[in-house]
Amino acid sequence: MCRLEKWHMGLKPKGEAKAEKIKGSMVSRPRMKLWLIRATTTVLLWTCLVQLTAIGNMWGPRVLKGWPSCFTPSAFPTAIEKPSSALPALVGTEKIVLPPKRIYKNNGYLMVSCNGGLNQMRAAICDMVAIARYLNVTLIVPELDKTSFWNDPSEFQDIFDVDHFISSLRDEVRILRELPPRLKKRVELGMLHSMPPVSWSDISYYSQQILPLIQKHKILHLNRTDARLANNGLPLEIQKLRCRVNYSVLRFTPQIEELGRRVVQMLRRNGPFLVLHLRYEMDMLAFSGCTHGCTDEEAEDLTRMRYAYPWWKEKVINSDLKRKEGLCPLTPEETALILRALDIDQNVQIYVAAGEIYGGQRRMAGLSASYPNVVRKETLLESSDLQFFQNHSSQMAALDYLVSLDSDIFVPTYDGNMARVVEGHRRFLGFKRTILLDRKLLVDLIDQYDTGSLNWDDFSSSVKAAHTNRMGMPSRRIVLPDRPKEEDYFYANPQECLTHIVPSGRQAV
């Protein structure tokens, strides 16, 4: 009776339960084998697919290279549309097929923090890419200066097309937006070796002293990157890579380039135009100690500003002596006099590429009287167009850079970073006319003219004669062994990347 109740309640005899258990295990084993076979087959197929994709990238037909891959980030398309630009070197709507990724043993990770203004940082980025390529390390997208005088909060991607920067250098160096998570955590915990590299170093310094540090620490942070690579004495491939980064890879964001095109189109509608890089701004005058033409109150303000910045090491400055040595930017009044002496048409449009001119309209009055068609981005564009750029001086400088490249004549009144980098870029675009003013000679001629010891005709003739060979034409860079700061700057005359070079001597600056 009890047994019947248990049976009806679902309980089975021991023998029958044991037989069913054995039967179940026999059924599960084939299933387990089938699952293992499927898993192994899937892994093998994925491995083959990855290998075929890698081979296709290097040697495969063009159709294979167009296939999407789940291992390829969306930021790295196989082809990208190149936006049009006002600049000859950047014009075009053709699709650019990206080069295959360069395969190499990664020696570590390089982080860099740039310092200075836009063009100082631009040159530094070019140098750091070349160094990363030479050392076979992974470069993290550079950090831009946010603590300098300009106090610009812009990130790299706010100024430059970061996707183009990363993808167009695939065949040279691996670039990441940020460190891998494990290494990023180390940096957040302060486990990071940081240092400034030695200025004007050749590539052997980086291979012999910097590379061992990267290999030891896995990550190295270079915290000052301006002028850290020599002008001369470098392998040709290094020089050419610096040019490639500067003239092809470092492209401004679509928003900046589009606004630059609009400004150029506005100017072109009224004929040829000249870009005047008038570096008569408060920061430059304070830094250089140049107060010629300023009131006593203005001179005191500039001196106070110089003392307020501890990294501006030179404090006591003789303004008159510095001006006579040609180490001051020309004033707006001096600039107007020189343009007239060079027979620049007084009806030409002059686009002033600069920040706020120190002294405002009072100091610009003489230039505006001689050249009534003086314009700025602020007068050409609506305030709504520039609203996005407010308090972002590097982005404003990028706009001026684009307009400067496309101008018929470019005239810098001081040889700062923008003047020199634009000069070199215009050489690269076909030796476009760039008037490189000999300030030491000019201030002497101006003083003679002002005192009446030189009449206008003689003054004008002397100015023209002095600048016949200072128009940005082909020339050789001056090399001064053991004095790299005094020799010609690579980015002002990248002769290794140009097609027409003067065989010997120095016929032009």
Write the layout of secondary structure elements.
Blueprint: H1 2-8, H2 14-58, H3 62-65, E1 79-81, E2 95-97, E3 109-112, H4 118-135, E4 138-140, H5 156-159, H6 162-167, E5 175-176, H7 181-188, E6 193-195, H8 203-217, E7 219-222, H9 236-249, H10 254-268, E8 273-277, H11 282-288, H12 296-308, H13 319-324, H14 332-341, E9 349-352, H15 360-370, E10 374-375, H16 377-380, H17 383-386, H18 393-406, E11 409-412, H19 417-428, H20 439-451, H21 456-466
Parallel strand pairs: 3-4, 3-7, 4-5, 6-7, 8-9, 8-11, 9-10
Antiparallel strand pairs: 1-2
Helix pairs in contact: 4-9, 10-18, 11-12, 14-15, 18-19, 20-21
Overall description:
There is one protein chain. The protein has 509 residues and is an alpha/beta fold. The strands form three sheets. It has a five-stranded parallel β-sheet with strand order 5-4-3-7-6, covered by helices on one side. Strands 10-9-8-11 form a four-stranded parallel β-sheet. Strands 1-2 form a two-stranded antiparallel sheet. α8 links the parallel β6 and β7. α14 packs parallel to α15 and α20 packs antiparallel against α21. The longest helix has 45 residues. The protein is elongated and about 110 Å long. The N terminus and C terminus are likely disordered.
Mean pLDDT level: 85
Low-confidence stretches: 1-23, 53-93, 503-509
SS strand fraction: 5-15%
Question: How many beta-strand elements?
Answer: 11
Q: How would a crystallographer describe the biggest sheet?
A: 5 strands, parallel
Distance between the termini: 117 Å
Helix coverage percent of residues?
Answer: 40-55%
Radius of gyration: 32 Å
Pfam family, one: O-FucT
Subcellular location: Membrane
GO molecular function: glycosyltransferase activity
Pathway: Glycan metabolism
